[in-house]
Amino acid sequence: MNKTVYIPKDFSASAMGVDKVLAEFYKEINKRQIEVEIIRTGSFGICWLEPLITIDVNGVRIAYGPVEESDVASLLDANILSGGEHPLKIGPVSDIDYIKNQERLIFHRAGFTDPLSISDYQQHGGFKGLQRALEIGSKAILDEVINSGLRGRGGAAFPTGIKWKTVYDTDVDQKFIVCNADEGDSGTFSDRMVMESDPYLLLEGMIIAGIAVGATMAYIYLRVEYPLSAEVLGNAVQLLYEKGMLGKNILGSDICFDVEIRIGAGAYICGEETSLLESLEGKRGEVRFKPPLPAIKGLFNKPTVVNNVVTLASVPVILEKGGAYYKDYGMGRSRGTLPFQLAGNIKQGGLVEKAFGLSLNEILYDFGGGSASGRPIRTVQVGGPLGAYIPESQFDTLLDYETFAQIGAMLGHGGIVVFDETVNMANMARYAMEFCAIESCGKCTPCRIGSTRGTEIIDKILSGENTELNLNLLDDLSTTMRDASLCAMGGLTPYPVMSAIKHFPEDFNI
């Protein structure tokens, strides 16, 4: 009986040298003349243990890691193909606390399956949501999504079902689904993990969205820095066409749905939905005035659903198990789960999918294990490069959209970047302004000019020049940027700046 070794192919394993590990496995297997099947999988999201290989022993996936090229021979000597003992043996994946203590609604397949195997996907529950969607039709789909309480996971947290219903209610000849896969926030990788570990989940969600609103054409706008995601998604789309699950009369129904992938060119601003639409139309990536909203006049002036990857990937479980099942997770108006991504100075970085309502302390220490340096964690930035800095005194804050808003912060895409006590917060505040100056599309004055002047003012504060006067000027400038910018690029830039000044004034010589 052939033994099977599962070796990941995703971004985190690749960064940690998995290709060398793979080559060494083939070399040792050939030398020993043993029959072993190697299957490439996605990631479990336990990035701190990558490369993490697993062996199927009587239906249980036994994990070993982190594995280096030099470990392969000793692993085979230890008979790991039958779950043998070795210093790198971790045990059953499902028993690892990092995984066991999560609520994985979106990522329950990630790491276990071959991302491009349709049969693997179906054997692990795939396409059940789509099948039900085809049975119940548009209005019932909308009811389930609205009742689930799902909100956009890209940062704005707008109710997904309301957006979809707006598109559904617009009577025109053509509608579009656009997946925003331009994941550009620092410390975020959940979209990438979906696309590289479970691409059919995203595509299933997009098809369901199309059925719900009456759209027959979809685009995935993918950031250029994700070549492996482009490869995996491209192959997945092609395979679904070959199986009759994309194109005309999908699964024998009268539904037609096409998907195309478009690669961005590295502009951070194209993560903003209207700038993304401009780019998709072949124009310069600039923010549009709103109204009209994209749900009314979006791509090519047609009603368009624009959702990010994790939002769309949440839809199949809602259709399969019902909106009430999904809504049972979370707290307040924040329902379901969010994949939190731990990055920066953290001991156990990776993806943690949890229902809303745990605290920052829990995720930083129970999952993250504290800082990688062993020094006290001084602050975290949640929500990307324009998110507020949260001090240690607020680490008891619950991870919930409304609770974060109450402390002047935002959850955004769920990225959490950790800094220990050595960080200089004045430098981080300056970086936020400089980042905005570089990445601004330039369309509105508060963002274009405000970020440049803001960088100059911070430099004056740091040099001790008219400190009180310049602090007041910076406060006025931030208020203007926040209230008058066309989009969140300029509107959110003041958050990291003012939070750094508020919580860490000593770094500004105040």
Please, what is the average pLDDT? 95
User: At the first level of CATH, what is the class of the largest domain?
Assistant: Alpha Beta
| Main beta sheet | 5 strands, mixed
Q: Which consecutive residue ranges, at least 5 long each, have pLDDT under 50?
A: none
Question: What best-fitting shape do the alpha-carbon axes yield?
Answer: globular
Strand content: 15-25%
Number of strands: 16
Q: Could you state the oligomeric state of the chains shown?
A: single chain
Q: Helical region count?
A: 21
Helix content: 40-55%
CATH architecture of the largest domain: 3-Layer(aba) Sandwich
Query: What is the CA–CA distance across the termini?
Result: 71 Å
Structural class: alpha/beta
Would you kindly provide a brief summary of this structure?
With 510 residues, the chain is α/β, with parallel strands linked by helices. The chain folds into four domains: 98 residues, Glutaredoxin (3-Layer(aba) Sandwich); 210 residues, 3-Layer(aba) Sandwich (Rossmann fold); 91 residues, Ubiquitin-like (UB roll) (Roll), CATH 3.10.20.600; 84 residues, NADH-ubiquinone oxidoreductase 51kDa subunit, iron-sulphur binding domain (de novo design (two linked rop proteins)), CATH 1.20.1440.230.
Question: Would you give an account of this structure?
Answer:
By secondary structure, the chain is α/β, with parallel strands linked by helices. It has four domains: 3-100, Glutaredoxin (3-Layer(aba) Sandwich); 118-327, NADH-ubiquinone oxidoreductase 51kDa subunit (Rossmann fold, 3-Layer(aba) Sandwich); 330-420, Roll (Ubiquitin-like (UB roll)), CATH 3.10.20; 425-508, de novo design (two linked rop proteins), CATH 1.20.1440. It contains 21 helices and 16 strands. It has helices spanning 11-15, 18-32, 72-77, 97-100, 118-123, 128-136, 138-148, 160-168, 190-197, 199-213, 227-242, 273-280, 309-321, 323-327, 360-367, 401-406, 425-439, 445-462, 467-484, 488-492, 494-503; strands at 3-8, 36-41, 53-57, 60-64, 89-92, 176-181, 217-222, 258-263, 304-308, 330-331, 334-335, 337-344, 350-355, 377-382, 389-391, 415-420. It has a five-stranded mixed beta sheet with strand order 2-1-3-4-5, with helices on one face. A hairpin with a 2-residue loop joins β10 (330-331) and β11. α6 (128-136) packs across α13 (309-321). The model has no long low-confidence stretch (mean pLDDT 95).
